[in-house]
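Support request from a user on the community tier.

User writes: "When I paste my structure tokens into the form, the page sometimes reloads and wipes my input. The last time it worked, I copied everything first. Here is what I submitted, just in case something in the input itself triggers the reload:"
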């Protein structure tokens, strides 16, 4: 059985998109399109849920970085604490939250 080479496939796909659409459009489409719009929606959702400028955001598995890109000018770069939001609660220690680790 032949194992697919996902990295080579991705690079080929991106090269094709750059050739057909140009670099800027290709970079947006290679991550599924609507890079800016989805980043705005994601950042707006977190701000609605009380993300404050002094908070620190850890975006694990961030993919293309839509969310951190949209929040880079909102969040204060020298935040010293690491708040975690779990089930609508804010805490400095996720293991103190009810249901953490589920």
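"...and here is what came back when it finally went through:"
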């Amino acid at each position: 059985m032949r194992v697919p080479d996902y990295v080579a496939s991705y690079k080929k796909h991106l090269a094709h998109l750059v050739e057909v659409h140009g670099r800027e459009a290709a970079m947006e489409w290679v991550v599924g399109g609507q890079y800016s719009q989805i980043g705005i929606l994601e950042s707006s959702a977190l701000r609605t849920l009380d993300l404050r400028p002094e908070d620190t955001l850890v975006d694990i598995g961030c993919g293309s970085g839509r969310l951190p890109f949209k929040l880079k000018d909102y969040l204060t770069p020298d935040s010293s604490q690491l708040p975690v939001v779990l089930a609508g609660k804010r805490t400095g220690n996720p293991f103190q939250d009810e249901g953490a680790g589920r």
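Agent notes: The reload is a front-end session timeout and is unrelated to the input. The helical segments are 6-21, 23-29, 35-48, 66-71. Residues 84 and 93 are 7 Å apart (CA to CA). Escalated to web team.
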